[in-house]
Amino acid sequence: MAASVCRVGSTVGRALAKARSPILLSLRRGQATVTYAQSLLGAPETRLTALDNGLRIASEETGHSTCTVGLWIGCGSRYETEKNNGAGFFLEHMAFKGTKKHTQMALEQQVESMGAHLSAYTSREHTAYYMKTLAKDLPKAVELLSEVVQSNALSEADIEQQRSVVLRELEEVEGSLQDVCLDLLHATAFQGTPLGHSVLGPSQNARTLSRQDLVDFIRSHYKAPRMVLAAAGGVTHEELVGLAKQHFSGVSFEYEDDAVPVLSPCRFSGSEIRMRDDDMPLAHIAIAVEGASAASPDIVPLMVANSIIGSYDITFGGGKHLSSRLARLASEESLCHSFQAFHSSYSDTGLLGIYFVTDKHHIDDMMHWSQNAWMNLCTTVTESDVARAKNALKASLVGQLDGTTPICDDIGRHVLNYGRRIPLAEWDGRIDAVTPRMVRDVCSKYIYDKCPAVSAVGPVEQLPDYNRMRSAMYWLRF
Amino acid sequence: MLSLAARSGALSPYLQATNVAVNGSLKALLPGAVKGDSLLKSSSKTAPAISACVSAPGGIRMAHTDIKVPDFSDYRRPELLDPKKSSQESSESRKTFSYLVTGATAVVGVYTAKTVATQFISSMSASADVLAMSKIEVKLGEIPEGKNMTFKWRGKPLFIRHRTEKEIATEEAVDMAMLRDPQHDKDRVANPKWIIVIGVCTHLGCVPIANAGDYGGYYCPCHGSHYDASGRIRKGPAPLNLEVPYYEFPDDDTVVVG
């Protein structure tokens, strides 16, 4: 078997050599025809216009035959109070249950017949309703989206029915311990502030939210200046603007009693929350410090810093040759099942942290080495670390934009956060400007000798006392 | 600093069943994004088990979102009481305060420890009665002029002599060049009226006799050393002057030697 493969291989090789085809034998065979720098500059521009009522329209024409179009709204659980926490999430559930023009059946039929996907998500500061469809179905898609957002039926019967669905979903999310851990992290880090609210809301609210609450929520937050109609794919900006004028001109831009909801800063509290259950097989632990806001200039050095720590999963095959030092340790000492460095940034604050999953005998070691990695970032990060991280970060930024939906999401979130889309070339420039000194300074500013917030779920007996973890946020040797 | 511990007791079967497998692919940690259901994958979510859970006895939590982080305002520092104010501005001053207090306590603690330790260790040194034996207090009023009194002090004879004016003048006028161990009288007495020396001959340790010898002072009978009224060696084999111990006059009438 092997002998015949060898024979075939050598014959092919000889034939190729004889043919002397330049393409086949050239060194550039298998490489892209466009360099990285060229591709950055050649990326299509994101065009941005605004309607009279303040609604912004942004689109990137990529030439695909499909497109993703959606409405990104600057509202989320952060705008909710204790009483209506979970309204946004409930509303998202109600979104596809029929509008004033179409019943649920009719709506589903419309979407299915186009072969489209209609989705939504809610986060702490953003809500999005978007549709993935063929480029030629853009008008229909925008019309349906405008109906879903502006003239939701919100029938009482559906609300009652969705209550149990929401409760069921609350129950289900308990199984996703990553979400539980990170929700608890927010709850303790931003305790007493709206950022501490979970997107899902407490079960009590799921049982008691009424139609009026949802209507009030829409009326206070679904305002044109806080909305972005974003699209990516085979769409022309002019067509999109025309459709927006047609369907979204009626979106209100005035608040009742001029009560404009202004976001007040959210206090970060160094604290911990432990949900110990020794029957669980693995412990999920997150430790975080207050990070940078989305528009802060420190965002890029912090992203590079997180790339230095990187992520790890027990299924990675790199072993002791993984580039992140923490990953090497995790692999060699079997410290954890997975970890990742994360940075959740909001409009005026953020959470910079490390989340890891490990068994109950390695929590102490893993926490020690994670904080050690942080200290390393603040004190002794080297040129090669930063160079490697910059490359990894650039690659991941580019790699994430692999389709009309991620691009559309990017556009929507950027316009809400920054007022414009930040192109890849700009990210690239800002990443290149990062030096080891900058990483050290920025990390020291956010991490060194700061009180962390810790949340732990599972068999967490071995997690050190908070004072020990706090002491590991500085080095006496320094 | 602020801990909250909760047990999930009865919900553990739910939690166990769903997370035994290792997460193969890491989910990107978007800031708390929760994916809603899309129309295509509308779930067959019915509500069979919900009512059982909801009406379960108190103490079983429905969801982690029901966990309320308690209000720790009673324990917060004043600059952190307002949840609408960022905690970054006050962090510098808070840390400084804490570290100063810790530092000061540490310094005080070190000194306390040192004091306690020295107290224990110095208890092993000479006790008060032993120390008392090292001093002698003498009433000077009992010594008439021209007279030499001998006391036993630290096992040795102590000579205290009340000198006359003539003796003082003589001793002060002595030429240094003539002395084997040159010392001016002023350097040997605190108060010229009183000469206080240890009565041990510097030759081989005999006790000199007072008011004897050729120089109006002491004479050692063992080998013939003559000392003057200042206790200095003048003639004879002794090499040094009589030793002057440490003494002080607490008042005019008493001297404490030692």
Automatic annotation (TrEMBL), chain A:
Q: Which organism is it from?
A: Coregonus suidteri
Q: Which GO terms describe its molecular function?
A: metal ion binding; metalloendopeptidase activity
What Pfam families does the entry give? Peptidase_M16, Peptidase_M16_C
Q: Which InterPro entries match?
A: Metalloenz_LuxS/M16 (IPR011249), MPP/UQCRC_Complex (IPR050361), Pept_M16_N (IPR011765), Peptidase_M16_C (IPR007863)
- Tell me what this protein is called: Mitochondrial-processing peptidase subunit beta
Using the record's annotation, list all stretches that form the Peptidase M16 N-terminal domain.
56-202
The UniProt entry's sequence similarity note says:
Belongs to the peptidase M16 family.
Question: Could you give the subunit structure recorded for this chain?
Answer: Heterodimer of PMPCA (alpha) and PMPCB (beta) subunits, forming the mitochondrial processing protease (MPP) in which PMPCA is involved in substrate recognition and binding and PMPCB is the catalytic subunit.
Automatic annotation (TrEMBL), chain B:
Q: Which SUPFAM superfamilies match?
A: ISP domain (SSF50022), ISP transmembrane anchor (SSF81502), Non-globular alpha+beta subunits of globular proteins (SSF56568)
The primary site where this protein sits is membrane
- Required cofactors, per record? [2Fe-2S] cluster
A Pfam family for this UniProt protein? Answer: Ubiq-Cytc-red_N
Give the EC number(s) listed in the UniProt record. 7.1.1.8
Keywords noted in UniProt? 2Fe-2S, Disulfide bond, Electron transport, Iron, Iron-sulfur, Membrane, Metal-binding, Mitochondrion, Respiratory chain, Transmembrane, Transmembrane helix, Transport
Question: Do you know which PANTHER family this protein is assigned to?
Answer: CYTOCHROME B-C1 COMPLEX SUBUNIT RIESKE, MITOCHONDRIAL
Q: Which domain of life is it from?
A: Eukaryota
Instruction: Give membrane topology per the record.
Output: Single-pass membrane protein
Residues crossing the lipid bilayer are none
Enzyme class (EC, first level)? translocase
Family matches, as PROSITE patterns: RIESKE
Provide the protein's localization: Membrane; Mitochondrion inner membrane
Record's family? Belongs to the Rieske iron-sulfur protein family.
Q: According to its UniProt record, which reaction does this protein catalyse?
A: a quinol + 2 Fe(III)-[cytochrome c](out) = a quinone + 2 Fe(II)-[cytochrome c](out) + 2 H(+)(out)
Quote the cellular component terms of the Gene Ontology held in the record. mitochondrial inner membrane
What more does the entry say? The Rieske protein is a high potential 2Fe-2S protein.
Q: Where is the Rieske domain?
A: 188-256
Q: Which InterPro entries match?
A: bc1_Rieske_TM_sf, Globular_prot_asu/bsu, Rieske_2Fe-2S, Rieske_2Fe-2S_sf, Rieske_Fe-S_prot, Rieske_Fe-S_prot_C, Rieske_TM, Ubiquinol_cyt_c_Rdtase_Fe-S-su
Q: How is the cofactor bound?
A: Binds 1 [2Fe-2S] cluster per subunit.
Give the originating organism. Coregonus suidteri
Q: Name one GO molecular function term.
A: 2 iron, 2 sulfur cluster binding
Full protein name: Cytochrome b-c1 complex subunit Rieske, mitochondrial
